[in-house]
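Lab channel / #folding
Pinned by the channel admin:
"Please post every new chain as: sequence first, then the structure tokens as a reply. Keep commentary short and put observations after the output so the thread stays searchable."

First post following the new format, from NK:
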Amino acid sequence: MTEEKVVAIKTMNSSGLTTMNTYNYMATEARGEQNVGYSVVDHLNFCLRLRMEQIEARDSQTLVNILNQEQSEDSNFCFRVKFDNEGRISNIFWRDSMMLEDCRIYGDVLVFDTTYRTNQYNLICAPFVGINNHWHNCMFACAFIGDEKTKSFVWLLETFKKVMEDKTPTSIFTD
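Reply from TO:
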């Protein structure tokens, strides 16, 4: 990716254009996808890195402050944060005392389904949900992960098991 293309993509992203709109623009300017000079996957990965860079120190600190406040108010509140090689938050997981209690009681069946990067930081929301005795959803935990790689899911599921007192669901429904 040339420096000119990097600047153009950053400008379009900061203007609010979607990742695919920026790629389509680059393809139009180059007179076809075959002339862009890189693949759509390269473009998607580059835009993902741009979004992760937008999680500035103050945003991360604000998040940690909120989680610490929750922990001071709820002795069973638990959160885990994983950082990437550059010290930015890559994954974050939390659950409170009610989530823990619901999981203890109704945690035999777990529904786990991730969203597709619908927040401003392009993170994937990963809620852990169950169903109580009134057939209502109950949240056992929630997380945001930076990617859908095996390593992230291993970290996430191991963290879930550990903070849920090693309770293992009998059944897991997922996509």
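NK: The CA atoms of residues 145 and 153 lie 8 Å apart.
TO: also worth noting, The mean pLDDT is 86.
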